[in-house]
Structure formats: structure tokens, C-alpha cells
Amino acid sequence: MFAARQTLNQASRRCFSASARQASKVTVLGAAGGIGQPLSLLLKLNPRVSQLALYDIRLAPGVAADIGHINTKSEVIGYDATPSALAAALKGSEIVLIPAGVPRKPGMTRDDLFNTNASIVRDLAKAVADHAPEANVLIISNPVNSTVPITAEIFKSKGVYNPKRLFGVTTLDVVRASRFISQLRKTDPANENITVIGGHSGATIVPLLSQSGFNLTGDQLAEYVRRVQFGGDEVVQAKDGAGSATLSMAMAGARFAESLLKAAQGQKNVIEPTFVDSPLYKDQGCEYFSSNVELGPNGVEKIHPVGKITDYEQELLDVCLADLSKNIQKGVEWVKANPGN
Ligand SMILES: NC(=O)c1ccc[n+]([C@@H]2O[C@H](COP(=O)([O-])OP(=O)(O)OC[C@H]3O[C@@H](n4cnc5c(N)ncnc54)[C@H](O)[C@@H]3O)[C@@H](O)[C@H]2O)c1
Ligand SMILES: O=C(O)C[C@H](O)C(=O)O
């Protein structure tokens, strides 16, 4: 009782529904940011979410007050930027989404964000390990190719690493891949499901158009692949210094969270692409790799193999693996050298 009251006092509580249903608590770390706000909004609209915990180093109580007025049943709580409030935001959470960190400006690569975002993700990963060690953890903060290994190393160091529950969110790449092919072929993107494998930056993003029955060739194929690989740059340039993709990313993050909740609640055949601890290319230095993954109540249920690909796609994959292994190694080595407090 005392603990519960203390928790309420520590958090700036915005609670607008008394009826917490059967638990599906979802926590967003970085909830007041460009992604965090629309992501939180979409989660508030999701009837599978019973409690939404919003944490940021600024403004989370305000965002929670605003979103909490939406007339869906879930309870929304905004937390101040204190360690005890962070702990309360995480406690009992089934899904933790992490979009905390800085976005790119024109001329930057995702790897240029490493120096700032690595320590943000490391410190949040420690809090997750301490207070929500059994949650599904969804890493959105870039560079995903390195922030996922950083998170895994922190979990390993704290003895709570569960490779089935750590996910790099690469959903936006398949969202773009289906949208871009539909624009070329004048089809409904809802019916286009393009497999994308690898990682989440530039040449590590490998769309496998051949597996979807499309037969683009020459410049049209090269341009399509380039657009999927550098779709993020399109948004960064258009925003002209004001950040990177936020709204499409919020949709992609909410879709992934929804898939996890569906799988946790017993739905079968829930498949999403995601960057996970994967056996597929470990022998080539890539401990983590994104491919289609079947989700279940325990997180990763089955990692699908890459399947048949063309020679052209194999060349893309070779370039991907060379870059990706370096990005992964960079994260692992950094966290060993910078374990934090
Ligand atoms: N995985 C993807 O597909 C994908 C897509 C788009 C963007 N991103 C990445 O997501 C990240 C966030 O992008 P954004 O546009 O929302 O940025 P933003 O600057 O608008 O928001 C980031 C938020 O994180 C908060 N924050 C910073 N440090 C924190 C900490 N220690 N704890 C809690 N919150 C903290 C900030 O206060 C801010 O509200 C970037 O790294 C970006 O590159 C990834
Ligand atoms: O491009 C970025 O930096 C953000 C994100 O990774 C994206 O793909 O839009």
C-alpha cells in the first residue's frame, strides 16, 4: 500500500480511466519526442493496451494529460524525469518502446548519431533490465544496427538477456517498401508485402522484391532499391534540419507493438520483420539480423530463413553483411569500453 502511494507521489500522474482491464501495460521511453507523441497517441487508440506509461526527460506529464483525454478505456500516466519515476513507468510493463535519442539532420548518417544515442540507450536499457526484465523491448533509437547490440550487452551484463524479447524496429523499411512499389505499379499498398532483410541503415537495408513476384529490372530496380535503402534520407532532407521520420515511424512502431500484443494474446501466424539475435548470418559476424519473424507469447517464435534470392539480391546482401557486422561490433565494443555507472 505504502509502495503504491509512493509510486503515485513520485510520478506526475495523469489517470483518466479507473478501469484498468486485464493487463497489457505498454511503456514509451522518449514519449514527448517527434516519434514518441504520435506513437503514444496510436497506442492510446489500441484497445489491446490497458495502461500506457509515458516517460521522457521533458514534458511527458503534459503529453499524458493531453492523450489521456481521448475517450478510450486505457489509463495514461506521465512520469517525471527521475530514476524512481522511470522505475515506476517500467514496472509491470509488457512492452517497452524506446524512441529516446536525437534524430538526424541533412548530411548525417545514422551512425553519426552513435556518440549521443549510445549512452542514452545504454542507460535506459539498464533501467529496463532492473525494472522490467521480462518485457518485450523495442528499440527505435538509431543507429538500430548498434543500439540493439548495446542493449543486449547491458542485459547480458545484468543477467537478464532474453534474445526472444529484444527487437530492433525495422518495420518502417517494409512499410516504405510496400508503399514505394505500389506507387510504381499503381496497386494498393495494403496488398503489397515486400520482404526486407538485413539492418536499418542505407546499404544494410535489403529489399527482396523477387520474393513478391515483382520483376523490375535495370535502372527501375536499382532506383527502387535505392529508394527503400535511403527512404529515411528523403524525409530528413524534406524536413530540412527539423528531424527525421516521425509520423510514419509512429505508425510502424504502433503496428509492431500491436503485432506483439496479438501474438501474446494467442493469435497465430503473426509475422513481422525485425532485427533480432539471429542464427542466419552469425558465421559472417552478424549476431543480429532482420528477417521475417513469427511472434508468439514468448516473443520470437520462429526466425524465417531468407529463402531464394536473385544474384542481384545476393550482391546487395554481401554488401549489407560487411557493413552490418561492423555496426554490430561497434556497439558491442563501445558498451564494453563504456559500461556507465
Ligand atoms: N527505427 C526506425 O525506423 C527509426 C525511424 C525514425 C527515427 N528513428 C530514431 O528515433 C529516435 C528519435 O527520433 P525523434 O524524431 O522522435 O527525435 P526527437 O528529438 O523528436 O525525440 C526524442 C525524444 O527523446 C527524449 N530523450 C532524450 N534522452 C532521453 C532519455 N535519456 N530518456 C528519455 N527520453 C529521452 C527527448 O527529450 C525527446 O523528447 C532517433 O534516434 C531517430 O533516428 C528510428
Ligand atoms: O532516417 C532516419 O534517420 C530515421 C529513420 O531511421 C528512418 O528510416 O526514417
From TrEMBL:
It catalyses: (S)-malate + NAD(+) = oxaloacetate + NADH + H(+). The lineage of its organism: Eukaryota, Fungi, Dikarya, Ascomycota, Pezizomycotina. The keyword Cytoplasm does not apply. It is an enzyme of class 1 (oxidoreductase). This is Malate dehydrogenase. It comes from Pleomassaria siparia CBS 279.74. Residues 25-168 form the Lactate/malate dehydrogenase N-terminal domain. Homodimer. It holds the Pfam family Ldh_1_C.
